[in-house]
């Protein structure tokens, strides 16, 4: 029988603390599958004494610019997108835009920082869930936020070029992911749940490569490629099922 629905919620801040981000979802497991229902995902302004007047307007304008820049960079990349493209979307001159972000590089880094705040706050490191559930839920979450996967895929590919301002960001990000996943795979190995012969470091590197590759294919053929299904298949090859409540106890038999 399928398990009962489990509700989870969380909150955090994005836009350098100027917005509060909240989410609520329910999930349940049926065999190797995890079903997720999003119940709520909202943001609202927070900050110093309600932040009224010119300061509030400035912060709202800044968020509008970041939204526009997100769209431009996701569609055209850093090289192909221009400050004028962003300025046109928000009804500003390029000179006025530079009042909020002194350079195109500053704007790019602010967009990447905002993306990390939103996706990171939704699934904090201290959530009581294993590696498999964490990855699957993050993949589902990212697919449901417009432009998040597009922005990441376009800019990460573009960052390998010489003098790209995002090169250090993505180099460090991939390093953090490999180390984090290797640590989680090592924990599974210590629990006896990693299949024999699987190296945690190699498994981590493969997971990063697979996830990025699946996302690229999904962007090109969303009706044919299922990112979550691909990730589940990968984990099934490497990770042993979690033992049942009575498995391994004296006096129990299988079959």
From TrEMBL:
PROSITE patterns: HTH_TETR_2 (PS50977). Residues 59-119 form the HTH tetR-type domain. Transmembrane segments: none annotated. Residues 82-101 bind DNA. InterPro entries: BetI_C, Homeodomain-like_sf, HTH-type_TetR-like_transc_reg, HTH_TetR, Tet_transcr_reg_TetR-rel_C_sf. The keyword Zinc-finger does not apply. It comes from the Bacteria. Pfam families: TetR_C_6, TetR_N. Keywords: DNA-binding, Repressor, Transcription, Transcription regulation. One of its GO terms (molecular function) is DNA-binding transcription factor activity. The keyword Disulfide bond does not apply. This is Transcriptional regulator, TetR family.
């Amino acid at each position: 029988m399928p398990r009962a629905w489990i509700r989870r919620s969380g909150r955090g801040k994005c836009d350098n603390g100027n917005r509060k981000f909240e989410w609520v979802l329910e999930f349940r497991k049926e065999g190797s599958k995890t079903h997720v229902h999003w119940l709520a995902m909202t943001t609202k302004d927070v900050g110093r004494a309600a932040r009224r007047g010119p300061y509030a307007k400035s912060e709202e304008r800044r968020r509008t610019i970041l939204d526009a820049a997100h769209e431009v960079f996701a569609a055209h990349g850093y090289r192909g997108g221009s400050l004028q493209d962003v300025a046109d979307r928000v009804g500003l001159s390029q000179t006025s835009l530079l009042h909020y972000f002194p350079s195109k590089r500053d704007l790019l880094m602010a967009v990447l920082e905002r993306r990390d705040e939103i996706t990171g706050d939704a699934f904090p490191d201290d959530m009581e869930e294993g590696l498999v559930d964490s990855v699957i839920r993050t993949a589902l979450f990212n697919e449901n936020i417009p432009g998040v996967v597009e922005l990441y895929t376009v800019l990460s590919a573009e960052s390998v070029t010489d003098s790209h301002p995002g090169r250090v960001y993505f180099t460090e990000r991939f390093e953090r992911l490999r180390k984090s996943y290797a640590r989680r795979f090592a924990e599974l190995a210590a629990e006896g749940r990693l299949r024999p012969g699987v190296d945690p470091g190699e498994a981590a590197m493969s997971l990063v490569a697979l996830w990025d590759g699946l996302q690229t294919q999904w962007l090109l053929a969303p009706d044919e490629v299922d990112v979550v299904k691909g990730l589940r298949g990968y984990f099934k090859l490497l990770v042993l099922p979690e033992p049942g409540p009575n498995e391994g106890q004296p006096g129990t038999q299988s079959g």
